[in-house]
Amino acid sequence: MKKILLAPMLIMVLCLSGCWDYRELADVTVVTGIAVDKTQNNKYKLTVEGINAQELNNRTAAGYAPSIVYSLSGNSIAELTQKMNIGFSRNLIYSHMRILIISETAAREGITEFIDFLERDREIRDDFRLIISRRTSAAQILKTTYPFQKSSSLKLFKQMDSFRRNWGGNPSVQLNDVVNALTSPAVQPVMEAVTIQGKASKGPSVENMKKVTPDALVVLDSLGIFREGKLIGFLPLNDSRYYVWLRGKLDHTAFSIECRKQNNNFITLRAYNNKSKITGHLEDGKAAFKVKLQLEGFLDSNHCGKDLNKVETYKEYEKLAEKYIEKEMKLSINKVQKKYKIDVYGFGEYLYRNDYKNFKTVEHNWDNVFKNAKVEVDAKVKLRRTALRTKSFISETKAKH
């Protein structure tokens, strides 16, 4: 009996003996971001940011550079990731990578070749963000310094996450999202695009980190649209919010809505509990959808001069917001239908899951069906409160004078 109990205990001890492939921290450099460009002779240029963890901690910082950015050109991304010790002294660890930046040129030529490597490699996790560098190289984005965070890739990751939570304009595209879209007949992939505001040539300098107004600053720019793995264009940043909403990922946002019969006067609605529901059908090769949007919110500012002590004012503002959202959502969807003629929103995925038999008849021609699909939008807005005040001090000031 004792021997029977001893055997599994010995096996457990062996399993807890430690990692077989561990590496000492002093022997590795953690990669936080990589950038992919194309050279003039059609080679890949891989740029890697490796961090000096000691310099990221104020207690241990000795005044050295917090990270190093190094570039190398070659035939494939897979090869280049293993050749980086041409410039780095330590082994590179890619498992903690947060950002992959793809240049606009490389994205237009196609992303499937190096996406295949990233998805296949066992040391690279799938939770990093994929973005496009617009009107500048991907390496330049990775080299641009920032005052508050010493690593440019960590700054960009935090920036995108904050923007998503506060305004909702970032779809937070990860590796699995791109792979699933590339292999699906019902949806095409998208990626957030960034650019450099100011003088890109001054971005890598230490002086850029010390200025109140940096000479170069990486800003979110637009939403990149793909067809069959190749970038075909961009949507304005405002449209990315409606994309995120339709994909069911919108947390918080804000709308500035012009008052009736009052030019340049607006109410601002801060929205939460944003929900979307898509219903539709396919008949005789023609698709029709109805999008139902729901949101709750509170009034953040009121320039329209209506009395907020009256229930009628809230109802009026709710109707005003509903019409505005319906109009803007429909315009955004129609823009993609008419200009790019592809489905990036996932309408095809809905039919694939709920009307598989009929969807199979148009599976290989879905984008052509979608561009002519009829889409109706119905929004329901519920105003819950008016922030900290009901009656504005502005009206009291006017009454005083």
UniProtKB/TrEMBL annotation:
Listed InterPro entries: GerAC_N, Spore_GerAC-like, Spore_GerAC-like_C, Spore_GerAC_C_sf
Main location (coarse class): membrane
Signal sequence interval, chain numbering: 1-20
Q: Which UniProt keywords apply?
A: Germination, Lipoprotein, Membrane, Palmitate, Signal
Query: Spore germination protein N-terminal domain location, by residue?
Result: 21-195
- What top-level branch of life does the organism fall under? Bacteria
What does the record say about its membrane topology?
A: Lipid-anchor
Residue ranges constituting the Spore germination GerAC-like C-terminal domain according to the UniProt record: 223-386
Q: Where in the cell is it found?
A: Membrane
Please report which protein family the annotation says this sequence is part of.
Belongs to the GerABKC lipoprotein family.
Q: What is the protein name for this chain?
A: Spore germination protein KC
Give the source species.
Answer: Peribacillus deserti
